[in-house]
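INTERNAL AUDIT FORM
Audit reference: QA-55
Scope: verify that the stored structure record matches its stored sequence.
Auditor: D.O.
Record contents follow.
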Amino acid sequence: QVRVVESGGGLVQAGGSLRLSCAASGSSFSRSATGWYRQAPGKQRELVAAVSIGGNTNYADSVKGRFTISRDNAQNTIFLQMSSLKPEDTAVYYCHVGGIYNAITNRYSSVTGSWGQGTQVTVSS
C-alpha cells in the first residue's frame, strides 16, 4: 500500500483560506483516484471532494464553490484549496488515495486504497 501524508491544517478565522496537501508514495499515483474526507466532532466521516484519474471532480454540497481539489501527478500530491471557511468546516481532514471513482455517477468510494493520518482544521468565529 502507498503511504499518504497530509499537511497544511491549522487555525484560521472564518472567511479565511487554507490549502491542504496530501503526498502519496508509489508510482501508481497518476493512475489513482483520490479524495478528501473530514470528520467533525460528534459526526460521521464524510467525503468532501474527490478527483478521478481523468480529472473529474465531485464535491459535497456544503463546500461547493468554496473548496477546490486538484492534483499534481509529477509531485504525487493532491491539494484541497479551502476558501471562505466557516466554523462548521472545523474537522480533521483525511486524504484517501486509491479508491474507486465512478465516472458516470461522479461518486468516490474508499472501499479500497490508503488513508492518511489526518490534519486538524479549526475555523474560529
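Auditor finding: record pair retrieved intact. The CA atoms of residues 19 and 33 lie 19 Å apart.
Action required: none
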